[in-house]
# Entry
Amino acid sequence: MQFTNSVNAKEGRVDVSLVIQQRLKELGLEQRDLAAAAQVTESYISQLLTRKKAPPAANRTDIYEKMNVFLKLPKGHLSAIAEAQRHEEWKKTWATPPAPLYREVRDLIVRKCNPGRQKQVLQIFEQQAFGELERLVTQKLLDVAKRTARAELEHERLLRRAARLRKQSYEEARTVILEFLDTDVFSISAAHCAAFLAPLIESWDIDLATFAIRVSLHHPPSPVQTVSFQFIERDEEAQSPVQPGFREFLRLPDLSSGATEEELDFLRNLKFNRRRPTAIFYYRQLQTLRDPLHFHDASSLQLHKRRDASGTEKHNQLDSRKKAIRRWDRNSARPIA
# Structure
């Protein structure tokens, strides 16, 4: 099967909207059909196809793969074109000095700042139209808000409930979040602030000596109350080396199989002064991490979801690990030749 050319011959550039329009025409479909398949509003699709809205970044949205399936395009086809188009636009505008934020956006950022530091922060902001500190703070507040918005997007039941509370359709609620996830510090609007930052961010503070930022959140909508960002100097040579016991733990699949990246990072970064842990130590630490009794909130702090297994399978797993421990004991007890 041949697919439409992804280059706008008239303008000589990569164009997502042209590809989508041509595929809709070839398949005899309408914009509203595509909107329903992508679970967004028809208005959003219309603005995308008429180029009133730039194509969103592929890593910030899930609509491209929904569109690929609906338009019978190869996996990743539209997202690749979108990234190429965004790159071309970026090359044209990268040298343009950043424009200042909307006044309402800056006012909200300053208003949410710790009262004891508001005056100092405002003076720094006003020295430049959109200086480094203002971009840094705005980006971090955006990151926090996007994390909550993305979590809401991934849970259809929660999103439908939120849509009813906001008197929106499910597609409208999805569209609003998708547009917000594609926002950056150069395109954030007063509407984004009203919909996401204002109800989520309770306050923020910054240490102007270290640039450590602390953000306090309203609960709900956020499941956490505080988020901190720190910028520290690290001496790579002074970092603790990987322990021999940890390397041995990794080499023994009966001990380390099934460990997640998050669990391995935790075990790898354990610090020791004089004592040198063995592979068995890391195995037991792994089991400790997986035991919900060791955490106050097992639903959110458990680092590993155990696979469902029958009693026979669990017995075999336990027996295999016991054998691995006995082999390790025998090998470690052998005198070195």
Residues 7-93 form a domain with the 434 Repressor (Amino-terminal Domain) fold (CATH 1.10.260.40). Residues 4-12, 298-309 have pLDDT under 50 and may be disordered. Strands lie at 7-8, 13-14, 201-207, 212-217, 226-229.
